[in-house]
């Protein structure tokens, strides 16, 4: 049994992590922290549904308290906060999965350009492994620091990677169009996220300027060893959770839908959390919500020579906490599916 600590336990990512870890047979939550402003409280007071399930105090972050109380740390913190904290946990010989973008980029200048902060540890940027098990399982196994991927990049990279790696689509004209539920912005999202703004509304935001665009480009470029260019438009839809991503990719040669589906089936044949839908069936968010699955379907538009790929994930599970648990399982040598077998039939 490993002792697990969660920093950022009061946010959506932290809360979802608690939900998943409560059913994990080899991990026990032993330490919790958040920005409590001196008002420590039992986590079951903060989330009453946890009553009689977990009785741990959640207090302001104190690195010594967390390192004494836990062997494995999840940091579900806003960007820039993890930057300072990760090195302290690593120094104390702990394994860390960081939810933020602070250790996702290979190039510190790209991080600075998109996040507005100078990176203080080139070495750790180099060391951190991008935690997408379908692409980096072996590196994750040996890692002590995982940069858990962003939610949009998870769905987009999983949907594009097999076709790019097989050289079947043009790498410079990819369009990624995503729709996310509101929990993607965290528990305290700020202006424009109140009920009246969100309910019965549907809007695009950060067009050609979202921070997940360089992350998608970095990961796909690394994979195919040449520059991949993406136009990315995210949208906010009035649902609590789930991301549906539509990718438009130009085929280099004529292909039938069944042939493209076979490429996906072959690439993901041993993956426990990827489901490729059969011809003429397409992913829906309700079928992945509450699960760690990514569903992928596609159709070739023979008229335009494009393949249209649809992927769905739950932003809080495969897009964040579920993927983090999957990474922990790989790092600790547990069965990859431990703690991740729950389903929610009504999202
Ligand atoms: N939401 C998603 O779907 C999603 C998906 C993928 C990745 N992520 C990433 O995961 C991270 C967490 O996201 P979230 O949605 O869970 O955000 P959130 O709901 O806003 O939660 C943030 C958590 O961090 C705590 N916190 C903030 N500043 C802190 C500090 N200085 N010291 C200690 N704790 C501090 C907050 O405590 P208080 O509540 O007490 O302020 C809260 O527990 C972010 O980096 C986000 O980009 C989120």
Layout of strands and helices, then pairs:
Blueprint: E1 2-7, H1 12-21, E2 27-34, E3 41-42, H2 43-46, E4 57-60, H3 63-69, E5 72-75, H4 81-91, E6 95-98, H5 108-115, H6 122-127, E7 129-130, H7 133-142, E8 145-147, H8 151-165, E9 174-180, H9 195-198, E10 203-204, H10 212-224, E11 230-236, E12 243-250, H11 257-267, E13 274-276, E14 294-301, E15 306-313, H12 317-332
Parallel strand pairs: 1-2, 1-5, 2-4, 5-6, 6-8, 7-8, 9-11, 13-14
Antiparallel strand pairs: 3-4, 9-12, 10-11, 12-15, 14-15
Helix pairs in contact: 1-12, 7-12, 8-10
Give your account of this protein's structure.
The protein has helices at residues 12-21, 43-46, 63-69, 81-91, 108-115, 122-127, 133-142, 151-165, 195-198, 212-224, 257-267, 317-332, and strands at 2-7, 27-34, 41-42, 57-60, 72-75, 95-98, 129-130, 145-147, 174-180, 203-204, 230-236, 243-250, 274-276, 294-301, 306-313. The chain is α/β, with parallel strands linked by helices and 347 residues long. It folds into two domains: 2-127, Rossmann fold (3-Layer(aba) Sandwich); 151-315, Dihydrodipicolinate Reductase, domain 2, CATH 3.30.360. The protein is globular and about 60 Å long. NADP nicotinamide-adenine-dinucleotide phosphate (NAP) binds at residues 7-14, 33-36, 61, 76-79, 81, 99-100, 150-151, 183-184, 186-188, 315-316, 319-320.
């Amino acid at each position: 049994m490993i002792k697990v600590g969660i920093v950022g336990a009061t946010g959506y990512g932290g809360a979802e992590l608690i939900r998943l870890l409560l059913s994990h047979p080899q991990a026990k939550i032993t330490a919790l922290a958040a920005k409590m402003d001196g008002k420590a409280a039992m986590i079951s007071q903060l989330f009453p549904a946890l009553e009689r399930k977990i009785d741990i105090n959640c207090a302001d972050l104190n690195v010594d308290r967390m390192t004494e109380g836990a062997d494995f740390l999840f940091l579900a913190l806003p960007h820039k906060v993890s930057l300072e904290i990760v090195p302290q946990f690593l120094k104390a010989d702990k394994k860390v999965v960081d939810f933020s973008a602070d250790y996702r980029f290979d190039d510190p200048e790209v991080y600075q350009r998109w996040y507005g902060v100078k990176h203080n540890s080139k070495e750790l940027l180099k060391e951190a492994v991008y935690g997408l098990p379908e692409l980096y399982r072996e590196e994750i196994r040996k890692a002590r620091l995982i940069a858990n991927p962003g939610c949009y990049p998870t769905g987009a990279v999983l949907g594009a990677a097999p076709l790019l790696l097989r050289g079947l689509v043009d790498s410079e004209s990819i369009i990624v169009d995503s729709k996310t539920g509101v929990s993607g912005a965290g528990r305290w999202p700020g202006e424009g996220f109140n009920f009246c703004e969100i309910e019965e509304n549907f809007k695009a935001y950060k067009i050609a300027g979202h921070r997940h665009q360089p992350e998608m480009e970095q990961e796909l470029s690394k994979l195919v060893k040449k520059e991949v260019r993406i136009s990315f438009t995210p949208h906010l839809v009035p649902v609590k959770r789930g991301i549906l991503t539509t990718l438009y990719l130009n085929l280099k040669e004529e292909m039938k839908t069944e042939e493209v589906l076979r490429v996906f089936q072959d690439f993901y044949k041993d993956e426990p959390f990827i489901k490729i839908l059969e011809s003429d069936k397409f992913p829906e968010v309700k079928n992945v919500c509450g699960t760690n699955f990514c569903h992928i379907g596609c159709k070739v538009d023979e008229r335009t020579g494009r393949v249209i790929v649809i992927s769905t994930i739950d932003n809080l599970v495969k897009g964040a906490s579920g993927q983090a648990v999957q990474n922990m399982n790989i790092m600790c040598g547990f069965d990859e599916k431990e703690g991740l077998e729950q389903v929610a039939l009504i999202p």
